[in-house]
Amino acid sequence: MCAEVAAGVTAFPPRNQSLDFLQALDTFYRDELKRGIELSYVDLEGKAVWLSEYLRLRIEGASGVSARAQVFLQIRDAAGIPGDGTQPVDACAVVRQLGQTPGIIDGQVCSEMGSAVVELDLLDAAGEPAGLCTGTVIAPTAVLTAAHCLAGDIAGARVRTAVGTIDAASIHPIPSYREEEPRSLDVGVIITTENLPLPSFPILTSRSATAGEAGVIAGYGVDRSGRDGVLQAGTVTVDRIDSDFIYTIFEGVGSNTCSGDSGGPLFVQEAGTWVIAEVTSGGDTADCLSGSNDFANLRHAEIMGHVLGLVPAAEQR
Description:
- The chain is α+β, with helices and mostly antiparallel strands.
- The radius of gyration is 20 Å and the shape is globular.
- The protein folds into three domains: about 60 residues; about 120 residues, Thrombin, subunit H (Beta Barrel); about 80 residues, Trypsin-like serine proteases (Thrombin, subunit H, Beta Barrel).
- The protein is built from six helices and 13 strands.
- Helices cover about 20% and strands about 30% of the residues.
C-alpha cells in the first residue's frame, strides 16, 4: 500500500526493493567476485555496508536501478574488477575488437573501419529499401540480428561495411517469431554471399548475463538529434533477466538503444573477453529517452539451437 509522505519526512524505499537489492548483491558476489557460499555469497559485513550505501543513495533520490548500479561500481572499484569506475569501458574499442579490451542514445560515435557491428539495409520483395537494422558478425559469412528485422515483408538484406556492401544469400528469423506476441523470441541470422572482411565476435552460451553486470551496446540507430546510419556504442547495466530476455533501464545514466539499433549486440565480458550475450529487441518508449529495454537472451535453448544450427562454426564462450 502506498501513502503520501508528509513534508520533512524521509521516505525509505519499499521493503521488497531492499530485498531485491540483497538478492542482486548475492548474485554479484557469486558471479563477479567468485565468492563461495556459506549462508550466502555475501558476508555479513558486506551486506551491512552495501545495504547502507544502497539506502543512502535511494534516500538522496536515486532510483532503484541507479542505486544498484552505483553500489556495484563501488564494489568493482574496491575489488579491482576491469570495467570499474577507475577504468571506464571504451565502448568503441569493444566494437572494433581491439585486442578484446574494453545509434545509441548518449553513446560514442565510432569508426566503422574494422567493426564487427554492421549496418543492415533491409529489402522488400522488389529489392526496394524497407528499413534499417543492426547486426554483429559471428562467422565469416554470418551476421546475428533480430528476428523482427527479417520478418514480415522483408525478403532480403545488404550488409554495409566500411569498405562496401555484401548481399545476403538468405535470411533466417527464428521460426517461432510472431510480431503480434510481445514475448516472442527475437533472434535471426543472415548468411552472406561472400566472406565479410571483418572480425567475428564469440557468443556467450555458458551462462546468462547477471543483474548489475556492466555491458556495451552498439548500433546504427537514431540518436538524440534524430540522426541514424552512424555507428555508436555506449555502456549499460543489466537490470534483470528471465529465460527469454535481459532488461536494462535508461534514466539518463549510461546509454540507450533506439530505432535502428534493433538486432545489435549487448556485449559483456567473459574471462577477459567481450562476447555477445544478448540481441537488441525493443523498448517501451518511442522517444528512447527513458524506460525499459529488452534484449533476446542467447542462452535460451531454442535461440541457441537456431543460431548454432545455421552457424555451427560460431565461436562460443
